[in-house]
Every structure is written in structure tokens, then in C-alpha cells.
Amino acid sequence: SVMEVITLFLPLKAGTCLSSVVSLLLILIYAHIYLVRSRGRRTGLSTSRKPAQQSEPAVAPPPAPGRGELKDEQYRLEALFSRVERYMKEKEPYLDEHLTLADMASALFTNKASLSRAINQISGKNYCQYVNKYRVDYAVSLMMKDKRLKVIEIAMMSGFHSLASFNMAFRLFRGDTPSEFMRTVHLSNLP
Prior knowledge:
mainly alpha; elongated; single chain
């Protein structure tokens, strides 16, 4: 075997010729290539760069999803998204600033990939945008209820971990900053 050949020459002595070591390495490389190619012929796999001349591939590619399968997948995503919506409205997990995709997936008894795909495809938002939309809507409701609250208090009560992330999300979904929004709310309620 190859290991036996190597162990014969491993303890190289001081007088060993470098050319004999190089020759041995070349022999081992050629032997390895020969073994790999001969295994490929036995299993029907080709290691050459030319396309194999077989009537069928060794492993057939998976069939393209049919219309029925695509509808099933869409139905599963919509059903999961419906559970997400119910969870967000009933449990209000978005108020926890440390909420993660993994936390939500665990609470809904699904995996992160399926949850993320459902949110992305059905809502058109990524996970963070989706959660932040709920947080901004909650912040607006707080602003309408208690006009004495400060912007930083509203941000923290709505699940944001910083004023900067609150301002950025608020501007994304409402088109203005929380302070501008509060000013218009206060002005509209003046007699």
C-alpha cells in the first residue's frame, strides 16, 4: 500500500539523495491519480474534463417544482405568516428590545429559515424591518395617548434599544422624525 512505501523511505538518512525523494513523490502522485481515476470508472463517474458519454447522469437532478408544489409552498408560507401576525398582535413580543428571529421561531414552533422566508415573501420586509414596523406603530399610539412623554421614553417603551435606531425606523415608516410627528400631533390638538 502507499503507507508501506512511505514508511520505507521516511527515516531519511543524512546521505539520502534529494532526487530519490522527488522521484518517490512523483510516483506517489501518479499512483494517487491512477487510483482516483480507476475508482471513478468503477462507479460510473468521470474525472476527466470531457463530458461523460452516458445515457443518463449518475445522479438525476431533482425535478423542477410543479405548479402544485409552488402553491403548496405559498400556502405554507401564508399560514406561517398568519401565525406570525397573530403572535405579534396578541403577545406584543416586539416590545422586547432583545427579540431575535430565533426567539420568534421558537415561540412559533418553526425554524429561522422558514420564518424569515415567510416574513420576506409575504410582507415584503426583512425580519428587522417587520418588527420595527410594529414598534413604530406602537410608538405612534403612545404619542397619541400621552403627549407628555419624551421621545427617548417612547423609544424605550416601544422596544427600541437606542434613540438612533428609533429615529431611523420612524423616518423609514412615517416619513418624518418622531419629534416632527409629535409637533404636528400637538399642533393639531390645539384649540
